[in-house]
# Entry
Amino acid sequence: MSAGVKDQDVVSPKAARTAFGAIGGVVALLGALGGALAALMGALALLGAPLFAIMGGAAELAWLTHPNPDQQVLRRLASDVFGPYFAGSPIITTIPLFTFVGYLMAESKTPERLVRAATAWLGWMPGGLAIVCVIASAIFTLFTGGSGVTIIAVGGLLLPALRKSGYSEKFSLGLVTTGGSLGLLLPWALPLLVYAMITGLDFQLVNKAVLLPGGFVLALLSAYCVYVGVKENIPRQKFDVKEALAATWAFKWEMGVFVLLIVSIKTQLAGIDEAAGLIAAYTLAIEVWVYKDLTFKKDLVRIARGSMALAGAVILILAMANALVSYVGDEHLPNKVLDAMLNLGFDKTWQFLIVMNVFLLVLGMIMDGFSAILVAVPLVLPFASYFGLGPFHVAIMFVLNLELAFSCPPLGLNLFISSFRFNRPVISLYRVVMPFVGLLTFALLVVTYVPRISSQLVRGDIQKWRQQAEKENRVPSEAWFLECVQLDRNNPKPCTEEDKQKYPNGQMPEVAVPDDAQKTDAPPVPGAEDEDDLDALIRGNGAPEAGAKPVGSESEDDLLDAIKGAGGAATADADADAGEAPKPKAKVGQETEDDLMDLIKGN
# Structure
């Protein structure tokens, strides 16, 4: 350790100038975009102040300097932190449990068993050991959330093995440094769970959607490992079936962790927090009583202290970031920024995607990954909704930006952890990680501008919701939540032009009733007749005649005709057919006895 410190002291002036120059540039940018308060918070963060203090302090300062005196209170911090949306989320329980699992595996001989099994199966390939490093790093990062444990555990194990196998130091250092964040795009990765918690997405669908882009990133890096293995003429080992089976059998209990997780979630026997508890208990049992790599007396307290310190720091940062996010939402800051961008001419989707990726990359370099998600999501979602982006597309871009930011110079977290672990100056790692940063940047561009990659595996679920809604004759609101970002969950809007025309304003269209459909031959309901119907009934017709006088405007002759009914008309017609002239009508009050007799007879 002392030798490493001396080496770092020799190059510290140059490294310090580089670091402070980067800090000054970032602070100036924050000041230009967000004002003095944003610049102050950014400077404190870059100089090493605790992130939870920065975020909590920024939230309180923002409320205390609010232009409305009624809002200048301190209670706005705790009400958001301890509300059901944050404190009641099962993800808060999952974070410390998964972190504990990652520490247990790192402190035991699990990395050795994992590397042995992967080498036995993949060592015959060109670049086989390097591919083993990619896979092993991704699996460990899955549970630790890119905290740096992967570099310390897996990287510390594989760096000497890579150098011994003939890989160059530049490639080996770059690979183990980048490997510390590769598992973020795998199912049940902690950043994905946090994103699902904030946005309200179904985390099981997020876990399904991430398989294709996550596999694409791992395949891209593995292909590069194959290229380097061929280029540097790295010797390959012969495939041995017995060794492969023996190594897999030795690793069988750790494989049970993934089996238990998948089965408990897929069969709905346990929620995500309950499954995390089962996995933590299972991992502790196999490491202490099956493999006997750890003991309660010597190791458990130490491991629990270290893992809970990390998990507690993450949860505290999340809590304070949540309070800051509340201020951002209440003040509608994203809408103001969106209006400013549109006024400047940034009204194309591809333009917004470039701005968003640069913003997320910078944020991921200067903040913890979880904090970056909490701060950035409320800022980005209004823009994503305006430009019609899909929720899974945005989620994958968020997490892939974190993967890139962790290894990106000059402030990537993996660079500093690798520098400490392998006693290398930070500035010397900038060059060795650039090929991997280039590959991750290419993957980010593909995911960004080919959004179908992020939603391909959940299209079947979207179609099922559409069919269900069509069967129930209602709007497919569940499908809309999965197709595009919705800001108002109580009033979802259609995403495609076809749906916008089919469901105006997100509602079922009104069915136009044709004029012919309004006419019916059904008899009138008793008691529902209007005056014209009653008049027609008196006249003996089924409906009012065309040109009939309104009720109440009849003369005495009209009333007499109504009383006579259809019989009078029929008699007149019969007389006309017989050639007889119709009798002249007698005026009311001047009838003869014959007229009265005819009236009684109905003639």
Observations:
- The two ends are 128 Å apart (CA to CA).
- Confidence is low (pLDDT under 50) at residues 1-11, 525-530, 542-547, 566-581.
